[in-house]
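G., before I forget:
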Amino acid sequence: MDLSRRELLTMFLGAPIALAACRESSVRRFPEGEIVGANWELGHVLREGRNFEPGADKWQNVGIAIVGGGVAGLAAAWKLKRSGNNDFAVFELEKETGGTSRSGEGSPVGYPWGAHYLPVPFRENIDLIELLDEMSLSDGKTETGDLIIKEQYLCREPEERVFYKGRWYPGLYLHVGESEDDKRQLAAFEKQINNWVNWRDGRGRRAFVVPAALGSDEADVTSLDEISFGDWLRQNGFTSERLFWYCDYACRDDYGLKLEQTSAWAGLFYFCSRVRKSGDESQPFITFPEGNGRFVRHMADKVRDHIKPSHTVVSIIPTDTGAEVICLTNGELRGFRCGKVIYASPVFTAMFVIRGFAERPPFNARAFHSNSWFVANLHLKDRPVPRFARDFPLAWDNVIYESPSLGYVNATHQKGIDHGASVWTYYYPMCHEENGRTKLLNYEWRELADVCLTDISRAHPEIYDLTERVDIMRWGHAMISPTPGFIWGEDRRKALEPYRNIHFAHTDLSGIALFEEAFYHGLRAVDAIIKE
Amino acid sequence: MKHVPLLFINVVIIATCGLIYELLAATVSSYVLGDSVTQFSTIIGVYLFAMGVGSWLSRFIEKNIAEKFIDIELAVAIIGGVSAPVLFLTFAYVSYFGLILYSLVFIIGTLVGLEIPLLMRILKDHLDFKDLVSRVLALDYVGALLAALMFPLFLVPKLGLNRTSLLFGMLNAAVGIWATWLLEPLIPRKRLTILRVKGFVVIGILGIAMIKADSLTTLAEDGLFPDQIVYAKSSPYQRIVVTRGKLGHSLFLNGNLQFNSFDEYRYHEALVHPAFAAYNGTPRRILVLGGGDGLAVREILKYDSVDSVTLVDLDPLMTELSNALPALAELNQNAFADPRVTVVNADAFVWLDNNELEPFDIAIVDFPDPNNFALGKLYTTRFYNLLRAKLKPDAAVVIQCTSPLYARNSYWSIIRTLEATGFIVRPFQATVPSFGVWGYALVKMQPFDTPKDLPPAIGLRYLNEHTLAAMFDFPTDMTMPSDDIEINRLDNQALVRYYESEWRRFE
């Protein structure tokens, strides 16, 4: 095997598996596929800082311009429509809306390209519940007012399994082979979590809740943002390797960051924000074969006439009465004069797009770091046969303990399709690398597909024969990075304020990338505009 | 020739082996094709006729008789030796089983038919004709008696058909090699060596087959199943094994007994007739979920009012086998050949979810026990809601619910799940010796009385008015064990966990 493949696999998967994979001399059938979606070139036009001036006849008027058709932008549009406002447009640079909740269609089921579940919201999150009700996902409410989600939309058991030393085990936390000390530490960790679940500040606010803006801002809580989650674990006396793995997995899964890169506030948020009271189970997950694609499609369908796909907003010029939004579409510049702008794009892009922002920045947009991922969808003609009779069976989420990837999600699981063809979605956050984004851009389909198949083949050697197609999406700016100091720092707080007639609305504003947060900020921007 | 008396031992063994092959062929064919009288009769007929053909053909062998005799003996050894395994394998994998069966019987018969005349010609110079005929034929029949007695009393019960076949092939070949010494003076030196090499090759092949027999999946299963395996094949969904024992045929899916023909009527009468008894109108459209063996359909077709039966079973191999394997088709009375029956091969959960259907009057739900998550989903509130949507308002349904005695929590979890779906549930149980005490649920969407009457004269063997009433009566050790039994949902799969922990006690 050539050296470059070994370097590639070592970089992505670690030396042992790279060595093992490169020793393998047999020629394997390699599936077809391609890089799809996320348009780098278009996005990067913005960085050039060119001056864009549409022709005089290329101008239109629109009340509210929503820049970005991800969850936040669509939620804003959905809310406007619901409140009877029809004078708005959603500008999306890609061919389709949905952002990181986008999904693919196919046989036997659709499949996600990014976010793939939503924990059932607490009864207090009435806006989000309104959306779920509109989608007929619920069977009503319990006596206490909690939402009853229809059974077919709640993640079906078995939810998770983990592959460790040749075998699959139930759940995410690896119990097999744990020592007494491991058990004690897990119990102590759960106790800490429970304490935070029950914690209330002087105003009765929880420490961690979704949306995060409703949680406490008292120093006991916000000071957690000053250290990494890894430091927090050590400061609390934790040493168990499997507990560290479990927390590291949680950080990579929800934030695309390693344990040591993640703020302790964000780490605890993951564990505490979806548990109502100590001892309760975490809120169950709502999921669909196509993941959160179902939500964004629903919202997009409600505002279909207002969506302008393949419209790259290249410049926003704030004026005294509103703003001028200039788009590049089909190689042509078009202008939109609007009263308000909802800027529902990653916040860091503001400095390239909004005229005057870079010269007199209201906050430091560069503080909004995002991390990158690649997501692969494997189209399987059949499933692998379990290697051991007692191996835990295929679950929804299938995690490989020794891998820096997040494993794969089985799209047919939720539909109850347990035999034959399926689609597996493989997630790889680029948090193990310096300059992960640049590196991701430099790799082509074949190399990333090789990484993905080599990784999965440790659990399923037959994956090469079963996979008919691997498509890959490279997410350059997938998620905001909740590194220590960012969430409770100056810049995030300032970005919550409108800049002239531009309201920011993006999950970045919560410092964590979640559907609920994006949705919240979309609605918050609409409320602010309506109030004005 | 000094060893003439020893050659007579050879005659006995040849005769024994010959009859063993004949009995093997007849037994295999009656196991897989059923109707043993016909099978034995035709196999014996073809075999004896082939022996006659062999005897007649012996006249064309003029030179090197001794050498040809040993060659033929070795040929019988290899063909006869592999006959039973070959027949079982071909039955599972090729459709022209009959052709292979009778060809094999004919070839073995012809070769065996050649043996005695040739041997008599070898011995004719050493004995009087009178003596020769009386001794050879007498010993020939002694061999036949030995075989006929050993076969049912010792060989089939102790060794099974495959091992018997291979063992007698080896014995046959060993006798052939021994004969090379007995007939040494009649065969050129070089030829002798060749014959001996051939003999050892044959023993070697059969020996390897004997050792391999234990590592081959089908044969390894001999150890798992108490009875003779007559069919074993893996589909993408499961391993299907049919065995035949003293009490009749049994079907196993992934090693779990589905029925034994001895008492399956108890299970299937209890599964089907209470639903019909509880239905108030005229039952026309019937849905069967699972039940690929066709035995529930057999019971359903006893009602003349039934216009259509839709059977949904995951595995096409299972439904095809129930139609094609004579032993099964006989048992289900060719249910799948009935024009009223439509077979759909699909996962019932996905099928109910994806199809718009005209509602059914009666549904019979007969899935394997919930021993994994893929099966567990077929016992959830979601599944029962999907089913409800395909039923007429006054429809009646019976669901098999595993054993309330061995898996009490599992049974009551299913009952509670049905109740949580909004069904009115009447739990009942029946005794099926092969399984033990078995549990069911009779459910409707409208309030109803426990059925008391059965239709007259449809030929029920187990159910009568008294057993029907008794089935709805639960002994204390099978009642609901506690009020905390969980409802089985897609998002908890509580039943699979109950089932695992309860049945593990019996493993």
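Chain A touches chain B at residues 151-152, 154-158, 284, 382, 393, 415-420 (CB under 8 Å). The mean pLDDT of chain A is 93.

More on Monday.
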